Amino acid sequence: MRWMDSALKFTVLLMLLGLVSTVTSGSPTKDGFSHCERTVKKWASSSLAVDIKEDKHTLRDMLFFLHVPRTGGRTYFHCFLKKLYSSTLECPRSYDKLRFDPSKTNCRLLVTHDDYSMMTKLPQEKTSVVTILRNPVDRVFSTYEFSVEVAARFLVHPNLTSATRMTGRLRSKTNGISTLDIWPWKYLVPWMREDLFARREARKSKGQNYVKSNDSYNMEDVVMPLHVYINDPVAKDIIHNGATFQVAGLTNNSYLSESHEVRHCVQNYRTLGEYVLEVAKKRLDNMLYVGLTEDHKESATMFANVVGAQVISQLIESSSRIESLANNKSEQSSFFPHSEPDNNHNLNSSTDQKASEFASTEDVDATNEIMTVGKLMDAYEVCISSLRKTQAHRRTASLKRISPANFTKEARQSGS
Ligand SMILES: *[C@@H]1O[C@H](CO)[C@@H](O)[C@H](O)[C@H]1NC(C)=O
Ligand SMILES: *[C@@H]1O[C@H](CO)[C@@H](O)[C@H](O)[C@H]1NC(C)=O
Ligand SMILES: *[C@@H]1O[C@H](CO)[C@@H](O)[C@H](O)[C@H]1NC(C)=O
Ligand SMILES: *[C@@H]1O[C@H](CO)[C@@H](O)[C@H](O)[C@H]1NC(C)=O
Ligand SMILES: *[C@@H]1O[C@H](CO)[C@@H](O)[C@H](O)[C@H]1NC(C)=O
Ligand SMILES: *[C@@H]1O[C@H](CO)[C@@H](O)[C@H](O)[C@H]1NC(C)=O
């Protein structure tokens, strides 16, 4: 992280430390502890051993964007990466690990919520990793709000049966990626959806005789209160320490079977979290770029200058290589093809398909035009403002369905 000044670096460390210190304590036993200690230490030393890379600031052939949920990574995906990489260079089904098979393609860009264990499926020495981190308290608030927001869209349906049936039909028809297919939303959204319908049914049977709360984060007649949500085993497994586990490759979605034992060990014996922290910090240190959600402007500028600039020169280089190859065979080719119709990102505001997280208003993919860092920044500014407008609109429309609950900055402050 040479690119990050020391203040930023310090903030990153604090974020990670904050996370690890909240690891929950299980029911520790002495034998269990020494077994776990051995397991975690073994994992940590093998993880640290393979991570030695020189020249970590140079972009390699493959760019892996480790997208920690609710850090703002989606704007980087739509407003930077989609403007640089054409659809053909994007690994197929980036967000869908079940169908991901990197060996089949020559893709250059992988953007996913999958954790660092994804590296075992990629050519490690040819892969650069980038990520964005966020203050854990805000990340948790945002995760709660987004779970509810997406689930609330289903309240257009008269009941849960009809909501789930409709979703299944739509999904098989459109073949698109929906938020419901990708970790962690595939657990969090159905959980909240079921809960919202149950609370609505309960309200109906109570009539007007329920106690109304004025705190949106604790309005149990309408939506699962934040404190209930965050203390649920599902949240403990998926959200607590979420960013640290993702960077360490230890999420509940990990590709490696030993990851699950390591995770359970550090969940039960919090002191072992130190080993995880060491691995996570080392990984961040070896990344090409680490952004911070809070320092949005600075992070975006840095991304354009560090990652963007290198992607541009890399693609120009391979483009001319391909072109001269093609010319020798008297064929037409370009590394900057016009975008294919991008059906996966297609959204329809009047159907449940809009549950897709991949909202985008203008997916102007990479084009034949020569890109520069300056143009990239300009395109980014335009893109992000329209993306934010769309997101705000969708959020308002969705939260209307759980009114009077409304997640605003003011409510966050008075509620907590
Ligand atoms: C759910 O709603 C559908 C559509 O209105 C209706 O046909 C069905 O009977 C309802 N199911 C239950 C369990 O109420
Ligand atoms: C909720 O109501 C209580 C009194 O009933 C009041 O003190 C508090 O400020 C209100 N909170 C919000 C968020 O409106
Ligand atoms: C991940 O968490 C979800 C929700 O708690 C759970 O349903 C799923 O089985 C977990 N997966 C693993 C591998 O632990
Ligand atoms: C294309 O052909 C020229 C001369 O025929 C040769 O010098 C050049 O190396 C070839 N380029 C590639 C990429 O094969
Ligand atoms: C979106 O939904 C509307 C209304 O249901 C429909 O007329 C339109 O064809 C849909 N568009 C797409 C792209 O699916
Ligand atoms: C929720 O709050 C936002 C921002 O203050 C506002 O624009 C929106 O209309 C509110 N929604 C409801 C349903 O009150």
From TrEMBL:
Name the Gene Ontology molecular function terms of this record. Answer: heparan sulfate 6-sulfotransferase activity
Keywords (A to Z) from UniProt:
Glycoprotein, Membrane, Signal, Transferase, Transmembrane, Transmembrane helix
Record region (Disordered): 328-362
Give compartment(s). Answer: Membrane
Residue ranges annotated as transmembrane are none
Which is a Gene Ontology cellular component entry for this protein? membrane
Regions of compositional bias (Polar residues) in chain numbering: 344-353
Coiled coil feature spans: none
Its signal peptide is 1-22
List the InterPro entries.
Heparan_SO4-6-sulfoTrfase (IPR010635), P-loop_NTPase (IPR027417)
Record's protein name: Sulfotransferase
Organism for this UniProt entry: Liquidambar formosana (Formosan gum)
Organism placement in taxonomy: Eukaryota, Viridiplantae, Streptophyta, Embryophyta, Tracheophyta
